[in-house]
Amino acid sequence: LYRAELAGFPSPPPVHQGVSWLGSMACGVLLLQIALGGWTSANYAAMACVEFPLCQGNWQAELNWAQAFHLPLGHASYEFGVLGKEARQTIHIAHRLGALTTALLVGAFALALLCQRTPLRGFGWLLLGLLTVQIALGLANVHLALPLVNALAHNLVAAHLLACCVLARGRLSMPHHNPLPSPGMVRSRT
What we know:
Low-confidence stretches: none
Strand content: under 5%
Shape: elongated
Largest sheet: none
Order of helices and strands: HHHHHHH
Helix content: 55-70%
């Protein structure tokens, strides 16, 4: 029993199990998307596609999934990347597709949090705000040819988005304890 129930106050409604599952999925997909962003950056693939939503004309025919996700070892230098054009385009497109999946899951988690009790609503609004900024920064990276300040902001917002998502998911797992009412409130109810 909650202490609030013992004092005669109703406990808050429990969080639906689906929200916890959605939060876990959102955190997992966000972590994978951040790793994919690192792979995109490490392989200099951010500028492989400079158009949106398309990518260099007939890009579908030029995708090379096998080459894009193999670790190219044995090079004397990795500066400016060692993968070919098709592999870099594939990495970039994979990051875009990951962004779409991430936006849908994190957005759904944020909306589900907005339907919960008050402390969780703040996480929902924060997630929606960070997600909106992150999408705008990603689009700006493509349209503005990857300015350094924008790329840095994209990384920082991704880290904040992950932290907020993990904190919100963790908060769902914590038992909710209402503070005991003040003695004046107890006297007024009796």
